[in-house]
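Running this now, will post back.
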Amino acid sequence: MKQLLIFIFTIISVTSFAQDKDKEKEQLNALKKANNYVYEGNELAVNDDFVSAEMAYRKAISKQPTTVAGAYNLGTSYYNEGSYNEALYRLQQATKSATSKEEKHKAFHNIGNILMKENKCQEAVDAYKNALRNNPQDDETRYNLALAKKCVEDQKDNQDQQDDSKDDQNKDQNQDQNQDENKDNQDQQDKEEGDNKEDQKDKGDQDKKDGEDQKDDEGKPKDDKQDQGKGDEQQKPQPQPGQLSPQQVKNLLEAMNNQEQKVQEKMNAEKQKGEKIQTEKDW
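Update: finished.
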């Protein structure tokens, strides 16, 4: 029984080893084909046959998805053609598949170049820094990093200027708006003052007209004339109850004088006759 188990284990081990060998062989064949396609693509790219080179690099990636050369060279071809989005994607793919620092350095360096083309200066700074981490001695990467930093500063200055210009524009707009509001308020105030003056003028004209209507033909106020007439009547003495009026007193005096004159005449006549009479008053 023990011998049977050992035999079975031996068979399984041999079979697994054979499978691993086959798998390794397939990978080697795939890598070899991928490298051949990369080589073919490089030849086509040198001859400026971008379309054929692109197809060759794509075949290399399909045979060996982790091939760094295929992704890197395809990304570089896209970069040379100005297809920056496709180039960026392929170079980022290369950084993930790269196993050596030199491969990573080249991929990050070219990523920085693409980002600078698109004016993404801060992202380009980060890419060049990653490239220098893998190869600190590369002078070209350090130079490009300095350019990227200068680009970041210029963009910041431009943004500050735009913000200041926008603030000034908003300030001018607010001032213009305030001036318009002040002008509208002044116009409204002038209109109200004009309306008040017009109302006062109309009121003055109406008062003048009313005053003229209250005057008589002689130009004197009717109310004054009426008041004057009333004053004359009030100044004229009025008889009081139980008292004689001046006219009645005058009439009474005249009657008394007439009566006395008659008595005097009668006395004179008696004297002439020599007769003596007694006088008496009948009032």
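Residues 52 and 129 are 34 Å apart (CA to CA). More later if anyone needs it.
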